[in-house]
Each structure stands twice: as structure tokens, then as C-alpha cells.
Write a structure and sequence with these properties.
This protein is α/β, with parallel strands linked by helices. The protein is 34% helix and 17% strand. The protein has 23 helices and 23 strands. The longest helix has 15 residues. It starts with a strand and ends in a 6-residue tail after the last helix.
Length: 637
Amino acid sequence: MAKLKLVQLPVPPPTAFAATGNVPLAAGCLAVSARENGLEKKGLELEVLDPDITDKEGDSQLADRIAKDEPEFLGFSLYLWNTERSLHLAKEVKRRSPSTKILIGGPEVNPDNPFVLSETGYDIAVSGEAEHTFFALMDTLLKKEDPRKLPNIAVRGLDGKMGMFSKEENASFPLTSYPSPYLQGFVPVDPARSTYLETVRGCRSQCTYCFYPKSSNVLRTLDIPETIKLLSSLKDKGAKELVFLDPTFNHRPGFEEFLDAIIDVNSDRSMTMFGELRSEGITEKIADKLALAGFNRIELGMQSINKETLKRVKRFGSPEKVAEAARILADRGIELLLDLIIGLPGDTPDDVMEGIEFFYGHGLGEWVQVFPLSILPGTAMRKDAESEGLIYLPKPPYRVIRTPNFSAEALSSTLFRSEDRLDRRLDETPRSLLSDPDPSVSDIFSFSPGLSEKFGLEDFSVSGARHVSIWWRGDNLEKSKKGFFNRLNFRFTKDPFAVTDLVLYPRSTFDPELITDIMEEFSKVPASYLSRTLAHRGENMLHRIVLVLPHKVSFPLEWVSEIREYIPVFQEMEWEEAVQKSKELGGEFPGARIISKNENHAAWKVLKENADPESVTFADRVLEKRWCWEVLGYSEK
């Protein structure tokens, strides 16, 4: 039998102990397509790589696992957050298993994305909704026929270059054609994860910045009986949070009857739900039904306060209606996400700030989220970017870096002004992995010249986890710099897309210039989504540096203050000292790395109530995960 492996890599979370949101729904849908069209009976073995594996394993571990049995076919689902890592894995698998034919698809795979199409390591690219195309492609490959006759396909030629895409065809198959991958066993229903599902494809809106209109403006819906059957099955399997991926949830025909059916299935409110809605059509009656159905979070996109901008990007709508709908929903206790985009064509920095003030004026400021515009592949905005004067990153996250009304500095300053007004950070704060080693997980490495006590893995050739920390420990770090940098570069070569926390753990002071030297080493690693995504903040999500001051070792306060200007600093301490300094942690005093192994409920409560939660971390893994999930909200429960 020929084997097909389907892989969907996760959204990189801000910390090692955060839920990744990794639900391989696209990969599962392709597996269902292959099964429903009889390819298993024709000798094709199907496997969707378990998200528990892709959540944890680093680049080399995953490449070894995927290539181990030399599968005939391998498919990657590409999204902006995993594209570069997926393409790296494709090359690594191809190096280990040259005969494996590698396919890529997903929103990133489009004729207008030269970044992906210029990459090597894969053989066939598929654009658009792929279920029908995919089974036809796999059938063709099994028959050893030429796939270029199929629509939405590009094939790498013998010269190593990608050919042109074949004729583009929009998908038109009914959603009832394929059962849910959850029910077919390709995607696990995990109560600790959100359960993603689609009941609609296509979108009536034509927003130029959005990928959805590329699919179709004709809505294809999963009818109410089939949807209720699916929801009932998911509930029986233990699903706790349902996330509807429908482009505009309340645009489906018969929406009110649809909600009535959900209310009936979820009468015990054992499941919570999330959806993205348009404000038009949200009435008191609809809001009541949304609340009764279990919707505890809803996203409403105003995008801009400027009505001319809304027309220009074909969003249309009315800010006043958004505010009215938001107030109706908030009155039912529903948490909101109210979107404003920085950098839309026609907008100015003042428009963004006026949008925030508009929401505050309606008592909705706490729900506002502001984020920079991305010029996504496959969108009308990318097609018109040159005529609109939009300059953007050619690689993920494709963020706009200049518009006629926004300089690069204005884009960043508008984000920071928004945060000042909203009194909160709008991006997730990267959190270092500072827990003690676990022998069963290869995520803590250490370089400790001159020290006798062991701490983590000293062999840097070991394949690491998706998120690792590398501890540089010693009496004099500067003396061991050359040896450490050699080890560090070896790790970067081994797992270039592993989130890496470099933990400085000195016994004496060092010249702050050492931090500059480390950053220069980081700059030698090719940039990627994670290193770019917070670059406008001067932060690197992929490679981070943190200083941990050992317990009961004294350092000059002036030196510690100087280091804190460059990188986060944590002081090792017991529960008691952390409680005493709870209000100062991360402010006048460094953060706390609590080394106590025992639980202390009273101290936990004080820190939870008084301390900046990002300034508290734990050597004990159980306590660290609990803090991330319970206090920081990095779980999906």
C-alpha cells in the first residue's frame, strides 16, 4: 500500500505551556475526501499527524518521524504562521526520503505568492478549496498519470522550477459531500482544545483585505439537520468549546432557526461557542438566542471609523450599527472582540485613535483589539497593493510597512498609542521557559563550564522540542563565550524553527555588551514568521534572552538595573520572598523565579492578586503550567 501523511503545524504560542490552538481540520478534511472517494480501497493508507505530536516535537524530531517509513506522499497545510517551518520540514523530509512526493496547499498557496512558489523541497502545489481537487490529484498520482490536467495545480518540472498553475476553478461541491473529520477519526475531539468546525463556505462580503471572497460569494451551507447531528456527536465525544469558522456566521440563510436548533442541542450549556458576525441583523431577539445557544464570545469587525475607508475596502457597514450590536451582545454577558485595523487604504493614524474613542464613548473600550494590516495572498488588496501605494513584507506575516498615510514609524507609534489609550498590551507577551528539566522531554539544554552540578541536556546534538531553553551557566560567562556560541549555532542548525529561550545564569556580573554579541548571533539565523511578527516592537518571538539571578547570590543593584534595560531579569526566590515583594515584581524589582517545589495556596493567592502575572514564573513545571492556564489564560478550557 502507498502511504499518505498529512501534516498541519501549530500556531506558535507565546509560551511553552500555552495551548497552541492546533486543530488539523484542513488535513483531516483532505483525509476524509480521500476516504469518501474510495482511495483507501485503491491501496492508499491515510494518516493525519496527531496534534499532540506536532505541538511538542522540534524540527529534527518531526522530520525523522515523518520520513521514518518513507511515505510515498506527504501533504502540508500552509498558513502564514507555519508556512516557513512547513517548507523547511518538506526539505528535511525530502533529504531523508528522496522518493517521497510532497504536496502543499492552503491559503498561502496562490499564484500571487512568489515567496512560496520560489521555495524548493515540494513537488506539487494546490490552490483553493481542495477536497475535490485533492482526491482527483491523489487518484491521478496513484495511477502514475500527469496531474497537470487537473484544475488549481502547479507541478515542479524536471528543471526544478515550479510550473504555472492550471486553470482556476472555484469549489462548488455541497458541504454534505463529506462527513466531519472528527467523526471519521482523523481529528481528535479533545476537551482541552477548542473544536473547530465549518457549517458555511463562501462569503457574501467582498472585503478586499480578506481571503474568504476568493472562494465564492455563493454560500454553501451544511443544512440544519446535518449540523445538529454533528454538534450532538461532538458533544458526546466531550467537546467543550466550539469555534465556528464560518466567514460571517449570521449570514447563513435561516440563521434564527439555526440558533434554535443549537439551543436545543446545547440546552444544558455544557458547550461554549465562538463565532464572527456582522452587526447587521443583530437584534435583541437574536442576541438572546446567541446567549441561550452558549455563545460566550463573539467577534465584530468594525475595522475603521472612516466610512470612506470602509467603502474603499468594500467592508461597508456602519460604525454606529457595530456599537449598537456590541452593546446588545455585551448586555447578555457575551465577551466581545471589536476589531480595528491599522493601515487600511485611506485611513490615517487619527482614524485609528478616533475609532478607539468611538468605542470608549459607547462604553465598549475594554473589548477593542487593534492590529496592523496584513496583505494576504489571494486577496483583492494584494492585487491592488501597488496602485494603492501599499508596501508590505513579502513573507509572513505579510504586514504592511508603509502606506500613503502611514510611514513605518507611524504604523508602530499608532499601535503604541492605541495600547496607551487601552491601557493594555495588544500582542501576547513572549514568556520564557524557565522551569527545571524533565528527563522525559528534550527541552532544557545547558552549557555549564566549570560547574559540577548537572542541569538539563549537555549534548546539543540531541533533537529538541518545539520550544526549548538553553541555559548558559558559569562563574564567568564571557570567558566561555566562544564555546557557547559554537554550541548555540549547532542548536540553530538542528532545529532552526524551535522557539529558543537563552537563559543567562551567571555567578558574577558580565559586560552588558555580551547581550549585543548574543543578538548578533541571533541575527545570523534566517528570519521567519516568529522573528518578524513582533519586530515592530523590537522583540524576537523566536529567539529570546533572559537573565536569571541565582538564589542567594548577590549582584550590584546598578548592574541589575542596567541589564533590565535590555532584557527581562528574574531573581530566584522562595514563596515567602515573592509574597513580600509581590507588588514590586517586574517593577522596582526583577521578576520572580520561584524555586519552591511545594504548593502554597496562600502565597499563590497573594501573587495572583498583587503581582504582574508575567513577572512570576516557576521552576516547578506543574506550577508553571497551572499559572499559565489559570492566571494568564493560555488554556483553551
